[in-house]
Amino acid sequence: NYTVLIRPYNLIGTCYYRLGDYEKAIEYYTKSLEIKRFILKQGNRHPSIIKSYRNIRVCYFKLGDYKKAIRYYERIIRIKKLILLSILTFSIITLFKILFDLGLIKIKKI
User: Fold this and answer.
1) Which one of 9, 71, 80, 103 is CB 3.0 to 4.6 Å from 32, fit for a cystine?
2) What 8-state DSSP symbol labels residue 12?
3) What dihedral do alpha carbons 88, 89, 94, 100 form, nearest 10°?
4) d(CA 5, CA 93)
5) Could you write out the DSSP letters of every residue in 67-108?
6) How many Å apart are CA 60 and CA 67, to the nearest integer?
7) CB atoms < 10 A from the CB of 14, how many?
8) Burial of 33 (0-12, 13-18, 19+ CB in 10 A)
């Protein structure tokens, strides 16, 4: 079961981060991220991926590698947009179902 490895890798990464060893922190945050990608069916669209990207982004920022930090910011934004779109779509479908159940809208058969 790979899920038991996600948290320890993340915590080791945090320890290295606090020690100021950002490259080693990236290594462990990346291991945690790879396991998440492997396990999660939604792949890069899962909200927990955002935490891993955020951790890696902060390390690159601390290292002064702003281009890589920006890439991780952009990945976070893409995921958040996908999640927001999913929530919006679900909300619209739910609203139409409620309106249909109340008889406030009718669907024409073709």
Assistant:
1) 9
2) H
3) 120
4) 37
5) HHHHHHHHHHHHHHHHHHHHHHHHHHHHHHHHHHHTTSS---
6) 8
7) 14
8) buried
- Its pTM surpasses 0.70: yes
Mean pLDDT of the chain: 88
Extract the tokens encoding 47: 């909200």
Residues 36-77: pLDDT tens digits?
888 876 566 777 889 999 999 999 999 999 999 999 999 999
Report the pLDDT value the prediction gives residue 21, as an integer from 0 to 100: 98
CA atoms 61, 71, 77, 40: torsion sign:
negative
Is the confidence at residue 99, as pLDDT, over 90?
A: no
Is residue 47 within 8 A of residue 86, CB to CB? The reply is no
pLDDT confidence of residue 89: 87
